[in-house]
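Archive maintenance. Older records in this collection stored only the sequence; we are now back-filling the structure field for every entry so that each record is complete. The fields below show one back-filled record exactly as it appears after the update. Entries are processed alphabetically, and CD109 molecule is next in the queue.

ARCHIVE ENTRY
Title: CD109 molecule
Organism field: Cyprinus carpio
Length field: 1197
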Amino acid sequence: MMSVTYFHFFNGLNKHYQLKETIDGSAAITFDVPHSKRLSDHTYSYYDEYGPSEYVDISVNVTDVTGLTYNSSARVSIVMNKYNLEFLQHPQIIKPSMTFTAQLKLSTYDSRPLTAEEQSGSVRLAVTQSKFSPWTWTWDNNESLAPRMMNDTPSFSSIYDIPVENIDLPVTADGVMSFQIHLSDSVATLNIEARFKDAVQGLQLYRSYSSPSSSYIQLHRDSEPQVGQPLYLTLESSFNLAEFHYLVMSRGRVVDAGTVHSSSFSLNTNHSWTPEACVLVYHTLPDGEIVNDALQVTFTQVLRNTVSLSWSQDHAKPADSVFLSVSVSEAGSLLGILVVDKAALDSSKDNGITEKTVLEEFMSYSREMTHTDYSSMKMGDPYSIFMTCGVTVLTDAMPNQEIDQFFPAFRADVYRNQLDSEAFQEPRKRKDFPETWIWLDANVSNSVSDSFQFTVPDSLTSWVAFAIVMSENLGLGISAPAELIVFRDFFVSLNLPAFLIRGELLLLEVNLFNYMDVDLEVMVVVAESWMFEFVSPDNGGFSLDNVRKASVLSNNITTLLFPIRATALGEIPISVKATSVYSSDWVYKTVLVKPEGLEQSFTQTLFLEFQLNQKTLTRTMSFSFPPNVVPDSQRASISAVGDILGPSIDNLDSLIEMPYGCGEQNMIHFAPNIYVLQYMRSTKQSDEQTRNKAMSSMMEAYERELSYQRIDGSFSAFGDSDNSGSTWLSAFVLRCFLQAQDFISIDRMVMQRMAYWLLAHQNSDGSFNEPGRVIHTELQGGLDGPVSLTAYVLIALLEDAEYRSAYEGSISSAVSYLTSRPSQGISSNYSLSLVTYALSLANSTAAPSALTELLNRALIVDGVPTWRSPANVLYNSWQPSSSDIEISAYVLLAMHRLRLMDEGFTLMKWLSKQRNHQGGYGSTQDTVMALHALSIYATFSSAESIDLSITVNGASGAAATFNIDRYNYLLQQSQDLPIEAEEEVDIEVVAEGKGFALFQLSVFYNVMNLRTSLRRRDMHTNEAFDLYIDVMDNEEFSVNLYICFRLRENQGLRQTGMAILDVGLLSGFSLAQNGVQLDDIVRRVETPSGRVILYLDTVTTVERCSEISTIQEFKVTNIQDAVVMIYDYYETQRRTVRSYTSETRRDMSVCSLCGPDCAQCGVQDIWLTDRTTSINQHPLLALSLTTALIILLSIYN
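Back-filled structure field:
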């Protein structure tokens, strides 16, 4: 299917076409575009620099013989002329009496070299100078500027003062022609029109350099820039110039400066100039006026270091041994090599490691150092020229600066935004199919070359190798990619989904590719397994048809389908062998089979602590599975560790099972590492593996987090795509960055810009306001919102001594605001906990009373103070709510600041036992704050005194034993626990020795009987959201979901913070291209395996709906239910779960997916030409039948 959209900007045309074609290798498809009325050459040429005004968008969906669908898109510009003309290397402003120097490039529309005939011609320039400037135009009630610019004749034609000057430029071989124009003393407008045959291009410069004394200087480059070679320059002036000063800026730094006494001079270049330098010259006249000019110099040779890669051969087969040779420029270089599957590289994003990407990064950094507000159209005065080079001017001289004036044309940026042969042998089993083959770092110490030997993986693909080198003297170097093609003339390809649900029926797709010169008769055998059964396609019953014969023509593909039904859980083996007289192949893969229903988990933690003179502790733990548990889905594990942070340290990279695709959620991979490193530093631990892991994770998260910083320095959930930065998120990021700077390099400018932005949103009473969205529900706080937000920002500003000093006034104002709040009444426990911790950090005398008030509100349960949310509004869970965890963490932190550690140990033990099996809690904020608190209290535990053993007894005896001492107390030891009864788990835990340990029982299971999509009149008071799913499954290869949701009134909220709509897909389906539309509610879409995750900006009590389009990728019938879940990200117990299915796919017969007459599944006997079955001619089938007969006899006996 090809979708074509024809678009014409000026005429407003927007035509859509859809075409279907059968493609054999390639196909030519023709369509007619509408005839468009062409505007004037002048108008077209003016806007050509901003991109094409007429183009065709093409989207193609191709389904191959294997059933896989591939998508691609392209934009094709429609050109009006055979030739293109482009002005290059010209100043953006004009200076009277100076020489205007520029280049003109002639090229063909398809960029082919110019012919001899074309080179014999010339380009005619028509040059017009005028004293009149459009900058002198003014608005009045009866006049509009835009129509004047859109006139078909060149602008200002009636007021030219100087006759048109014609210049003929002989065409050069490369098409680049240089020319000069001497400007008159009174020129204000310069118009140049270039013509070559049918091509016309205009250049109009309206802005003259602003000088009260009409004094001008202009800098010309006399040589091409090359690193290490002198750059020759000439300075032209309109007055007697005895000396001038120059300054060279690159990447935000001054790389050269000096004074020159000659109009012709040279500067010595080096690598500090790269990739782009700004050469600034200036002179101060006797009356204090400054005149200046700037020249941008771009270098193409940026990296000094070189590295090259080469394979020992261009083509290889799986399991071949190959060598990858590398050469560097300097011995002792640090070398990194990456080899990835070419299919994994996204060509549209250019995500390979190339010198081009590095150069683009350098260039972007260099341009960030300049003041982008001063665009080329504003460079009409000395001050803006200084700013163009990124120079801030502090002087008692007079650098003239003009205010912005209206530019007389409709805005081009608005326009831009709209465009945007082997003999027979036993085959080797192929089972290694990585996306990344090699990830290697090495030190090339003794020479400048080395060679590495590798075994080629089993993937039939192209492997692309990249190398990065660093050396002491030459710095960074990047190789050109080196490609290795892995191929076989005959091979098997399996089309398998990532997972199935038990009971579903998969049509195992075996594709036979024959690129040999002969036709092949191939016997295909799918190995039997106890984990799945073969199914008869005509009746769905048990089958023994695991052997088939197929004819595969030369340079062709044949597809066979084997219907199988998964009967066991876990990774089922799929082993397929294809043999012929000439060649053979054997492929092994696995498919994960999941249980039906929704996965649940339960974790119970024991804090095993010996009292004085106590040598033995005995505890019992039990868990009863619910009645609707899915059979065989039950599993359990046990673990033990001798450190309070141990369960979390072991899982730093996966503390919670939640998406992390926004600016706040990404911090779950940043902040916890800080507290682990602080704890290790405080306790003088030297576990380098943990330390390196934590720092590596922090660096990766830090780099991701910077993508959410906005241009004004603030942070928000989705960066610049949000309407405003977020005070709350900016404060959170600032606090974490300040804490992390002891361990990794944090850009101080990033933190300072955040702080400036935060302080700009402080009110006169000391409170802070929130211009953006607060995606954390509890921080919205109702009437307490300003209080909790102010406390949150204050906590960040108090994190660093330097910031305390620098922003003392703002901090004092915020403290004063918060100090008065408790006496006025803070209704929210959450807000009060934030205020208490903030005041304790500020050493406020009001902190103890605030803590006392908070403790007085607590409900004491088993001697532990708790602050519980109303149970009837949250999803049933063994874990406390996220806000309860956060409050407890803030209380512990405040107690630590107020030196009340002893009073906090009971609460600390309770908090340490509320973690999930991964070491985290419910969401980002509660996990971060809880681990912060636990890390402080963990420093007071003594590893020296730990020496104990833990024995776990089940119904049939000892199940496990863990030994913990001062050498291994940080290591979390774990073991699977056999499920001895389907109804429950009962264990006895016996600890002997001294010290303490955390023991954890984690249980996992699935439940059925989920609520399916309900009618809107159905009411369930124990759910947080209404959630409805309409399934539209009438199309042959697609299923569309129409999902509606809203927040229920029983939550006591008008809206949530950020919410997640987690949509499980039916087996064999994936999200269609553009299958979800982003809007003001759906802000981001992610597609992990088998799911579609929608990030919702908020969910209110007003119903909203979203449509999700899915397409069939794999052939599956008897489809089981899929699960849809919506939840508040920062209060995950506020959730609703539904299931849905496709009745059409659930009841679909196997044969309906097996092609005409069910032939692809073997119902028509393609094994014998006479359509009679002969066991003698099918020995493997005979073996299978014999085996089956023995099994059946044993059953009946």
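Update note: The mean pLDDT is 81. The longest helix spans residues 688-706.
Entry marked complete.
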